[in-house]
Amino acid sequence: MYILGLNAYHGDSSACILKDGKLIAATEEERIRRIKHWAGFPTEAIKFCLKEANISIEEVDYITISRNPSANLHKKIIHTIKKGVSLNTLINRFTNSRKVSNIKEELSSAFDIPISKIKGEVKNIEHHRSHLASAFFVSPFEEAALLSIDGFGDFTSTMTGKGKENQIVVLDNVIYPHSLGIFYTAFTQYLGFDKYGDEYKVMGLAPYGEPTYLKELEDVIFLLPNGLFELNTTYFKHAKEGVTMAWESGYPTIEAIFSDKMIEKFGKMRTKDEKLTQKHINLATSVQRMTEKIIFHILTHLHKKTGLDNLCVAGGVAQNSVANGKILKNTPFKNVYIPSAGHDAGTALGSALFFYNQELKKPRVEPIWHAYTGSKYSDLEIEVILKHEKLTKEIAKNIQYSILSDDELYKIVVDSILNAGVIGWFQGSAEFGPRALGNRSILVDPRRKDAKELLNQKIKRRESFRPFAPSILEEYVEEYFENADKVPFMEKVYPIKAEKHNIIPAVTHVDGTGRLQTVSKSTNPRYHELINTFRKKTDVPLLLNTSFNENEPIVNTPQEALNCFLRTKMDILVLGNIVVKRK
Hints:
By secondary structure, the chain is an alpha/beta fold. The chain has 3 domains: 2-131, ATPase, nucleotide binding domain (Nucleotidyltransferase, domain 5, 2-Layer Sandwich), CATH 3.30.420; 139-336, Nucleotidyltransferase, domain 5 (2-Layer Sandwich), CATH 3.30.420.40; 379-582, Alpha-Beta Complex (DHBP synthase). It has 21 helices and 23 strands. The model has no long low-confidence stretch (mean pLDDT 93). Strand 9 and strand 10 (229-231) form a beta hairpin. The protein starts with a strand and ends with a strand. It has a 9-stranded mixed beta sheet, sandwiched between helices. A 5-stranded mixed beta sheet has the order 3-2-1-4-5.
């Protein structure tokens, strides 16, 4: 049985394919289209998944989409009547919902075949149930408490539940217009970070300040005795006026969510080119702390309600790795699982799993501990690309490549890292999710105090306050981090032990923390061996790992990796066992 799972007509559009419940392939449309957070119908991601499964669209049995236009329909109608939402907003919502209902038409057009040939039955799975399924059904837990929390999906922003074996029971939810994701996004925009998905910048900025605005934020969002929360909607525009959003054929956009009252309360908003002041930084700190407070409030009540020690979390807010790293310390839960694609891209997988496990009542498959489900290329395919490139005289003049054994490869790469090298590391299958996890990574020596300047000078050119992350051999986590657990997807931030701060300054943030990735020999033997080779020479079992890109989606193909190498000052490009250098 083949199930094609989709996240469509929303940011981070994506697709996956399951065969008898087992994940064969999953990728985000942005990786292929080369537009960050690409929104619309994931045509190219679908084609990739079908190719990996070696089937045609006619052979797919079910097509699931993580949207259900009929979910909470009566609440949508009542809200629209009571609030008098603008005509523009209503038209946008209707158009988007109609497209969700016409999946087979889109597939017919994409593959140039009659609709009658697409036998797959379309199943609409509610957005937050898809999030819950994306975490629980691939977790190692037989039974767990569940939380999905984001901006909005199907008129809901938060859903709690309980999972046991192959079934999920929803316990509670937070309905439009109340949303922790909207709270965080509104302040992200207010602080001058106006692009879709910029919330991580506020998270990176927060450790530089003090939470001096917590009292003021208590008027913006409130805790409720039932373990949930509410917004003071006078600070936001979405509840009354509606907010224009673009979710089709390109980069997603959302106009400013906050109202004039936000400016009255906190002063003039920062423009994106304006210098960050301590006031801006303190507000970022306060927003982060308030967000954590809300999350811990929800989870403490959820633990009391379920009595379970295992927790699964998904949703856009689940990308807040700082909050994630504090869950075990600030709530009664003892174990937490967060998938590699906790954001909306992961709902493609979640919708497929929800249908397979929950609705068809099929048994769960093995837990997922790696994210390597995207594009992959053999050394032979890579060399064909390089030989083609060498036909271009200008490029041929400037680069040379060699094919090495594994041992030679690890030695040359580590020697370059030790010599202040910045390495493009392209291996195996691309990661599913927003983070490079050792297959589409840029690597640097974590012991260098000038590593951030080195990277920004040679490649990244990003804000100075944003940290870089460590990939650490899982056998050495306790030696370097406090209270850290298994973190395969770089989804949690933990304190780095004080005595290690001076040893690995490049990956130690201003507050003494690091967003780590624990690297296992069983899930990524090549990356594990590279780090281990570095450890043997330095006695440090980790590397600085950042995503292989330059103000673009993470590279997906050898050609894109080569292009990035050529337009930056990267020192070495490693494509499989092929090392590319400048002459």
